[in-house]
Amino acid sequence: MSNAASTDSIRQVGIDAIGETGWRHHLRELIRSKTQRITSAGTDAPWHPRSRLLSALPDKRLALAARFERRPRMQQLFNGFVLLGLALTSIPPVVVAEDIGLTPMPERPAAPTFQLADADGKPHRLDDLHGAPAIVNFWATWCPPCRAEMPAMQRASEQLAADGVAVIAINVGESADTVRTFRDEIAVTFPLLLDPDSSVSQRWPMRGLPTTFILNPDGSIAYKAEGERVWDHPELLAQVRELAAEAEGTGIDGKQHASAGADGQPNDPDD
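Structure (tokenized):
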């Protein structure tokens, strides 16, 4: 079998198993872990000269990573992964949290609207959430920090229910069966929506997974959190509840919102 045919076969098996979006993320993480192994190796490691060169020439890491593994049974497979990874880099990687808080959005942009089905086929619209703060999370089952933060998000949804705060999580690129299995395993009760082709997630201001947005009652984005958070932490809950209190003080209701339509422009409240 030629190298090209072997590479195509590997790619198809991966896509069939975890979907195209999951496959892309898997390749990026594989390349990252392999290159970290090289650069963290000690002077006694057989690939140490390449490690020194990688440190001096970071722009060449991916090219050199494809050459560091010389064991015959691994070389062809690893090189195929690297070549595919270089071609499939349009999907952002897993995001590691740099802090435990929420990042304010100074401009408070309008949240891009959407209509998506949940894992059971029930449709949900972003516009239906207006009138109270909402938490919108983007995630995937193959993303470790996404899985890790989901139980805390479930607890937060239970604690915030009395404040009228809605919590939804949008799965990026996976099937309904995969999401239902995860939901039953973790005992998640808030809606898990499906974005199978990533068309919705690509319109939101995000770099990777998980990313979570806290929406004002008027549909604008108040805060963003990149990476894993402990969502039932008192400080995070207090920030969300402050938005609910502001809404009560200003009389904002579900008819007064600024969500963005498919063209990215704010909707007219009178439409």
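Strands lie at 103-104, 115-117, 123-125, 134-139, 166-172, 192-195, 211-215, 221-226. The radius of gyration is 22 Å.
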